[in-house]
Amino acid sequence: MNRFIMNKKIFRKTIIDTASQTYIEDWKISNKDIELESNYEWYIHKKRLYGGKQDNIDIIEVNNGSLSFIIVPTRGMGIWKGKFKDCFLGWESPIKQLVNPCYIKLEERGGLGWLDGFNEWIVRCGLENNGAPGEDIIIDNMGREKKVFLPLHGKIANIPADKVEISIDLEKKFEINVNGIVYERSMFGSNFKMSTSIVTELGSNWIKIKDVIENLRAIPSEMQLIYHCNYGEPFLEDGSTLIAPIKRVVPRDKYAIENIDSFSYFSGPKPGFIEQVYFLELLGDDEGKTMVMLKNKEGIKGTSISFSLKQLPYFTLWKNTASYEDGYVVGLEPGTNFPNNRAFEREKGRVVKLAPNAKYIAEITFAVHLDKEVEEIEEYIKKLQGRIKPEIIRNVHPDFSKA
Fold it and tell me: What is the pLDDT of residues 353-375, one digit of tens each?
């Protein structure tokens, strides 16, 4: 590959653009092509997958010299998996390859078809709805109330991006930015534009996602967004712990009630384990910023998620410590709501209503911490907790979920 001659402060490359019919199947750029004042060996590689249910999926692998991760434009700009040094980021799902959205039937298995493609490290749930499958009432194209069935976690994770652009800051920060635009729209239905920016810095231990959700309709629209962030080994193991500044924790159902006193601790794989879900209200700093961390048993490996409670005020802990074969995983899930059916969340005032042309911004940062840094992050989270003692609700609460 010829070296790129850079005369500007930012390098840009459009990979996909449906408006201009731009599509590049295979493209790569690295430190061998652009000289930066950095010693890191980095690269960005866009390619297309073939064969099986992954056929015709586009992926973009980003390696900043320390941290690598794979973005999937074909699946709503989710992040499939990553690696920091020797630490795997993600989990081992029973679904081993990426699944093209054309094979996903959301209504199957009583609305659980979303799970047929679920294997990402970071996947968005929304945008028209998310949470458990169930019925809701909408106003149809004839102005009548109509009962509809909403499947699990909505559509956005199974919608290909219309535009993807890569940019590289050629000056001091040396940031790599993958920008994407995904539309979730329907005639007589929602019409959302999601503009996402996925950023990392050369040699860093972090990824930052900034999503801007815009309502393109001329009338208000309801919007829901959850970041389903999923971890297996090495961060999840027998003896791992969730470190979080907790105001209140509530069990979702009877299975969660059984282990409410140990909700923040994790066991090893258990065949036949039934998922346990806890709804949390978190504490933040004076600006509403908060952080949670999953750390391993020895306390030498941790992974954190930072976000604003003003943007993502609700947090869900999904414990699925089943056998390896069935998906040994924990989900850390900041969101605009809890993952109940939309009708229930609306009743409790946890559904965002976007005015025409209004925008909703959500920013979330993921980082990996090793050795002494794990202790430092834990101390920071303890400062957010302060002297406030977490309120532990030991039964299903009607404001959080149905009995």
Answer: 999 999 999 999 999 999 999 99
pTM exceeds 0.85 for this model:
yes
- Find out whether 135 and 151 touch, Cβ atoms under 8 Å: no
Looking at 7-138, list the stretches that DSSP marks H as alpha helix, in order from N- to C-terminal side: 108-111
- pLDDT in the model for residue 226: 98
Q: Is the pLDDT of residue 220 over 80?
A: yes
Find the angle CA(221)-CA(212)-CA(139) to the nearest 5 degrees: 10
Token pair for residue 149? 């069935």
Q: What is the pLDDT of residue 172?
A: 73
Q: Please check whether the domain covering 10-392 is classified as CATH 2.70.98.10.
A: yes
Q: Is the separation of the CB atoms in 206 and 220 below 8 Å?
A: no
Picking from 91, 227, 210, the residue whose alpha carbon sits closest to that of residue 157 is 227
Whole-number Å distance between alpha carbons of 229 and 91? 10
Length of the chain: 403
For 24, list phi and psi in degrees, rounded to 5: -115, 120
Beta carbons of 302 and 295 less than 8 angstroms apart:
yes
Q: From its phi and psi, is residue 9 left (phi > 0), alpha (psi between -120 and 50) or beta?
A: alpha
Burial annotation 61-70 (CB, 10 A radius, 16+ → b, else e): bbbbbbbbbb
Q: What is the DSSP letter of 329?
A: E
> Which residue in this structure is represented by tokens 């002297």?
387
Alpha-carbon distances of 11 from 29, 31, 35, 44, rounded to whole Å: 11, 13, 12, 13
The answer to whether residues 44 and 61 touch, using CB atoms and an 8 Å cutoff, is: yes
pLDDT (0 to 100) of residue 403: 67
Q: Is 169 helix (H, G, I), strand (E, B) or coil?
A: strand
The alpha carbon of residue 166 and the mean position of all alpha carbons in its chain are separated, in whole angstroms, by 20
Task: Note the pLDDT of residue 5.
Answer: 45
State the average pLDDT over residues 316-337. Answer: 98
Distances (CA, A) of 383 to 153, 209, 240, 352: 34, 25, 21, 30
Site of tokens 């940062």: 365
Instruction: Name the DSSP letter for residue 157.
Output: G
Can you tell me the distance from the alpha carbon of 86 to that of 234, in angstroms, rounded to the nearest whole number? 9
